[in-house]
Amino acid sequence: MSAEATSPGAPIRRRGRPRIDLRRLGRAALFGPVSRDRLPDAIAHVAEVHRVHHPDADLSVLQRAYLLAETSHRGQMRKSGEPFITHPLAVTLILAELGAETTTLTASLLHDTVEDTEVTLDQVREEFGEEVCYLVDGVTKLEKVDYGAAAEPETFRKMLVATGDDVRVMSIKLADRLHNMRTLGVMRPEKQARIAKVTRDVLIPLAERLGVQALKTELEDLVFAILHPEEYARTDALITEAADGPDPLGATAGNVASVLREAGISAEVLVRPRHFVSVHRVRIKRGELRGSDFGRVLVLVGEDADCYAVLGELHTCFTPVISEFKDFIAAPKFNLYQSLHTAVVGPDGEVAEILIRTHRMHKVAEAGVVALGNPYASEGAPQTAEPADGERADPTRPGWLSRLLQWQQSAPDPDTFWTTLRADLAQDREITVFRTDGGTLGLPAGASCVDAAYAQHGDAAHACIGARVNGRLATLSTVLKDGDTVQPLLAEDAASGPSPDWLDHTRTPAARIAITGWLEAHPQTAETGRPGVPADPGPQPVPPSAPRTARARTATAVTERPDAAVRLAGCCTPVPPDEVTGIPVRGGAAVTVHRLECPAVARMEAVGRTPVAVSWGDEQACRVTLVAESFGRPRLLADLTEAIAGADAAVISATVEPPTEQRVRHTYTLRLPDAAGLPALMRAMREVPGVYDVSRAQHPAGAL
Questions:
Q1: 598 touches 572 (CB < 8 A)
Q2: For the CA atoms of 300, 301, 302, 305, what is the dihedral angle to 10 degrees?
Q3: What is the pLDDT of residues 347-380, one digit of tens each?
Q4: Is 116 a catalytic residue?
Q5: Which of 604, 611, 572, 621 is closest to 588 using CA atoms?
Q6: What pTM value is reported for the model?
Q7: pLDDT digits (tens, 9 = 90+) for 318-330
Q8: Which of 14, 326, 588, 659 could form a disulfide with 584 if both were Cys (CB 3.0 to 4.6 A apart)?
Q9: Of 97, 116, 306, 424, which residue is the catalytic one?
Q10: How far apart are CA 652 and CA 234, in angstroms?
């Protein structure tokens, strides 16, 4: 918004996207005469684009919104010297190009009025109705005067809660950030970097999850140019060089069009260039770029059945690359995306990737939730803000958003919310698992039975002792796969609680926050293990009646508070001889020991918690979590396990995440007989062929 508004002359610009002269339109809005029977010049272009998608739209409300915005912002200038009205105009034009309906455009014209002018929400409500008022309020920033350093995270929290009621709030915010990123050139470099990092960590993942690819891809390119200018320049040079060379994709597109025409299939065949970040990723993955790597062939048809007809013709007439086939029509992505993906080998040996979708699928793929219009109005019915029962039941709210809204209620601290939000949004794949009662659970990829238990039972999952996965008994650390059926098993003992080890297996913030809260409330149990259940679960779930297994001794930490319970933090797993400090919790009744460099220490000091001195005792056995990053290859897991066994380390748990771009991430929780052997163990693991890094684990969300 106004704090992020800068020059329109930024050199970074997505190729092929039309621009209008906002400086000229803004000045025309301020100084040019306007006759009574037509729209002002500045809003006329927006209205023209809007009518393409909504021919019967009532433009009078847009005219009234523009006049209020122009009047209230009159005299305000952007940092570039442009009239400020050019910003809401540009945001509205972005949304109009995506096909947003009139209510969204009205709110986007007014989105800065309450924040930056004397206009109040009551005035917006009285003039434009409750729905527009709700959208404007949703994107209005909280004042730094009232919230201080917490203003940014709390603004995002407010925005996300509003998005849970109406996804159009986030649509406006994404368009607002896109225009500000396009015009970031006059900001100081350090401020450009700060805004770009927030855009990368929060807004780009949100755009991906809401399916707004048109905004997401351009935001990625703009962030790429700011944070990685050398790589951006190299990618730009590669794209320019490829544009001056032969066009293998054009030849493939021509052949595809010819094949479909002969088969009697009506289709539009286009070459769709990759954006900068996409080209960069392909170069990282393949090393040497081919001429066909700079774009993909897009085939648009009328009906779903035509997509499969096109696929059949292409696989018949060309040599298909079977490993590249994906069916996102039968199994859509969690962000509404639908398409068939395949790749074929052309006559010249070039491999071309092909996307097949209907025109409607293409619109949703580009605009996501923006293309769905008002989620509360049925087709042909008047738009209303509230259904008859008074509940706003948003049919576009995806499972990840419902989970986000749930866990944010348990994270009142702004730092915890901000850190957890970034970690949650970094998990960009989702799986669906089935409950035994016929329901489903949406979970991030890599989620375990622990996550499923808390997603299904909430705090009652504290009593979980195991699970059945696909009818078989499984440990709580078992990683779930898409389509699994999971049944968490709960103990009848109400005093049961989670083990600290559970934090090593969680992927969802809701589970991590719930477990951390319980452990802080029961520091003695957190140190000695949960009642009635072994602290380190074996290969089978342990019934609640089983006798407690003795917990192996681990490294002891001594604090200056002899009466306080002491536990080692699960976020940074400190071991001797690490330099450590203690953070008092629960009024000083317990102390959590962290490594000095752990991010949790700085966060706790920032909110006023005073660290206490900690030293290591005589016991040198330790428990530690290590993360090994490697390239995938056969026998890798066996070789890593052999290296661990060679150091006399006991494996408490191990997880292997699905490969991403030929890279594999292994997480091991180990018990060593002597902490002094940890450096040698990490060296031995790094020497395993294919392993390029081994590090101590950091779990920010569980760092309290």
A1: yes
A2: -130
A3: 777 889 999 999 999 998 898 888 776 655 544 4
A4: yes
A5: 611
A6: 0.63
A7: 999 988 899 989 8
A8: 588
A9: 116
A10: 45
